[in-house]
């Protein structure tokens, strides 16, 4: 299990995490900031100059998940993770990756209040830095992130995490509050769920659904970047078309009244860390207005759905998925079935 302590810079995450690691049984401290420090040394300067925050590096987000999984495999017990996450898509990606490894996350956010937060930032000093360097590199950074923190607390973060007001609490008292919330279940397990991470090639089935303007339905998963088609991994012993129908019902609450017709099969080559495999795309047909009105997101796996044109899909889908969609639409127009390898007809 992971107890993730979120909050603004200078909210008291690290000092609280140290105390909490001593309160929870078999707990260890894991600070993903160390991964950012390592990447600053290992990555070329040109790559580092492309971002202003190491969290914007996909390799950082991937290594945060991989390292957490490796530490739990080695140590067991509980990992206490003090790390600010203010972008919901990064939370989704990291927590989704942990869920894929069957690692539950209890998400806590520290909220001392803006006034106390600013007082703590003003008093913050990093050893080895001059006063001018502290002002520019430490305090100014923290001040600049206060608006984003308040916005997240009023939105997704406040709704997702168990909030602890630590404005008048010591780190020890804050840790005791968190430990009690973990024991009683007040800090519940994050609801992001995902099938286990594949260890070999997979078979997946997607279903294209259309509105009366012939726009195609795309969904925005919480557990990975980029938009996608409704669908998912075909389970052992399951027919691909049936898997597509099942996934549409699970993701959108929509029961298809007929088996979808096959548009294409695409072989996706392995590109580490992914294993690739066969991808089926089916034609679920045009949805009547009543069915569109009844679309919903019954589970935590999807953030949003949207009907889009082919040109709009090009802006939302990763390149490989868009190539698959483009050829599926051509197959639909021609009334044929296409065989693709790496997104190209053969």
Tell me briefly what this model is:
The protein is 43% helix and 21% strand. It has helices spanning 13-23, 33-42, 45-48, 58-75, 88-100, 114-122, 131-144, 146-154, 156-160, 171-184, 240-252, 289-293, 310-316, 319-334; strands at residues 2-7, 27-29, 78-82, 105-110, 162-164, 202-210, 216-221, 231-233, 261-268, 277-286, 302-308, 338-341, 344-345. A 6-stranded mixed beta sheet has the order 8-6-10-9-12-13, sandwiched between helices. A 5-stranded parallel beta sheet has the order 2-3-1-4-5, with helices on both faces. Strands 7-11 form a two-stranded antiparallel sheet.
Descriptive notes:
With 346 residues, this protein is α/β, with parallel strands linked by helices. It folds into two domains: 183 residues, P-loop containing nucleotide triphosphate hydrolases (Rossmann fold); 144 residues, Nucleoside Triphosphate Pyrophosphohydrolase (Alpha-Beta Complex), CATH 3.90.79. It is built from 14 helices and 13 strands. The chain has a six-stranded mixed beta sheet with strand order 8-6-10-9-12-13, with helices on both faces. A five-stranded parallel beta sheet has the order 2-3-1-4-5, with helices on both faces. It is elongated, with a radius of gyration of 23 Å. The protein starts with a strand and ends with a strand.
Distance between the termini: 46 Å
What is the share of helical residues?
A: 40-55%
Can you tell me the CATH superfamily of the largest domain? P-loop containing nucleotide triphosphate hydrolases
Number of E-state strands: 13
CATH class of the largest domain: Alpha Beta
**What is the fold named in CATH at topology level of the largest domain?**
Rossmann fold
Low-confidence stretches: none
Most strands sheet: 6 strands, mixed
Please state the structural category: alpha/beta
Output the helix-strand order.
EHEHHHEHEHHHHEHEEEHEEHEHHEE
């Amino acid at each position: 299990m992971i107890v993730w302590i979120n909050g603004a810079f200078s909210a008291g995450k690290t000092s609280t995490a140290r105390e909490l690691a001593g309160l929870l049984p078999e707990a260890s401290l894991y600070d993903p900031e160390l991964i950012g420090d390592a990447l600053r040394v290992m990555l070329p300067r040109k790559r580092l100059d492309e971002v202003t925050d190491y969290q914007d590096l996909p390799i950082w987000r991937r290594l945060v998940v991989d390292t957490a999984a490796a530490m739990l495999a080695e140590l067991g017990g509980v990992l206490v993770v003090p790390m600010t996450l203010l972008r919901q898509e990064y939370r989704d990606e990291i927590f989704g990756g942990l869920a894929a490894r069957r690692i539950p996350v209890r998400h806590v956010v520290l909220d001392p209040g803006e006034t106390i937060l600013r007082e703590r930032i003003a008093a913050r000093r990093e050893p080895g830095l001059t006063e001018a360097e502290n002002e520019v590199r430490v305090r100014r950074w923290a001040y600049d992130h206060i608006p984003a923190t308040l916005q997240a607390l009023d939105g997704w973060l406040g709704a997702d995490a168990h909030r602890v007001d630590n404005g008048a609490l010591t780190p020890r008292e804050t840790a005791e509050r968190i430990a009690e919330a973990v024991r009683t279940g007040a800090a519940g397990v994050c609801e992001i769920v995902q099938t286990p991470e594949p260890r070999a090639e997979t078979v997946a089935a997607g279903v294209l659904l259309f509105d009366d303007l012939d726009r195609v339905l795309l969904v925005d998963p919480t557990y990975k970047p980029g938009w996608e088609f409704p669908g998912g991994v075909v389970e052992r012993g399951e027919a691909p078309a049936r898997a597509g129908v099942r996934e549409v019902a699970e993701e959108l609450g929509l029961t298809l009244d007929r088996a979808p017709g096959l548009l294409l099969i695409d072989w996706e080559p392995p590109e580490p860390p992914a294993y690739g495999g066969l991808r089926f795309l089916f034609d679920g047909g045009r949805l009547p207005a009543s069915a569109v009105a009844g679309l919903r997101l019954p589970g935590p796996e999807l953030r949003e759905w949207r009907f889009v044109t082919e040109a709009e899909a090009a802006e939302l889908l990763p390149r490989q998925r868009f190539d698959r969609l483009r050829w599926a639409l051509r197959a639909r127009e021609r009334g044929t079935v296409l065989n693709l390898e790496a997104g190209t007809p053969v």
